[in-house]
Amino acid sequence: MNSIFGNIDDLYLFFCVVEEGSLVSASKKLKLPVSTMSRRLSALESRLNLRLLEKQGRELVATQSGQQAFLAIRSGMENLESTFSQMLSESQDVTGSVKLAIPHNFYRAFVGRVVEEFVRQYPKVNVELALSQESVTPETNRDLLITFEIDHLEGMIARPLFQAHHGFFASPDYLATCGPVTTLDQLEALDWISVDRAQAVPVFSGDSFVRLIHIKPKLVVNDIQAIAGAVERGLGVASLPYRHVSPSMNIVQLLPDYHRSAKRAHLVYRDRKYQPRALTLLVEALLDAVSTREQGAPVVKGD
């Protein structure tokens, strides 16, 4: 043996036996079987060609050479223990920065409270919020995204957050100009207000797919609250998340037996490897908040 490489663990076993006063006490501290420790200590003595421990009654105690070795390595082992504990503490201390990109109505509804509580709980973490309806791609392992659109995010981790169920709505004033709507063909022909330019809308009855309707959006707004307001003011018809609809709104549901496919929001981030603890904890906080709200109030008003 001419190096501590491969031997430092066994030297630490010896150090613990002497420091704890017995092999049994050391095995409890290190959570190792007595037989394993005894075998490794014997192998260490063989490599050193030095008797470090001897039996006194039922216990192992340091020989004179062992006591000298213990005193020689004691300071170094204590320093290693202290340094390792400090490194472990620092790794568990939550620090760093996280960037969160979300639609602004999510922030107002529930994310804002989660983030504010998070920064109070972890004051060494800096959170950067980007409130936008535009979907972005997480570029670093500190980026977190909440989005409904994940088709372009191959290779990312997408955690289901909540599901938004929709219905078709218009204002009484708008319906007064176009007449009653009793069929999907009539619904298809109305003035549509949409969050995007998609023209093919899948329509379901319960869990069963019925057909696609093909629409021509008259107004495209990438904000669901703005769309709800436009519907109230009589500009047209829209597919609105039910939780964005309240009894006080001046709108009525069209063809209540039909609805578009539900949309699921996801938490999206890069691979978990080397993921900052701050991001992990923020993900958990957001998931917990949604879980709590699903048992009570809506996650997002209208979603």
From TrEMBL:
Name the record gives this protein: Transcriptional regulator
UniProt xrefs under PANTHER family: HTH-TYPE TRANSCRIPTIONAL REGULATOR, TRANSCRIPTIONAL REGULATOR-RELATED
One GO MF term: sequence-specific DNA binding
GO biological processes: DNA-templated transcription
Keyword tags: DNA-binding, Transcription, Transcription regulation
Protein's UniProt keywords contain Transcription: yes
Species of the source: Vibrio furnissii
Listed Pfam families: HTH_1, LysR_substrate
Residues of the HTH lysR-type domain: 7-63
Family: Belongs to the LysR transcriptional regulatory family.
Statement: the UniProt record of this protein carries the keyword Transcription regulation: yes
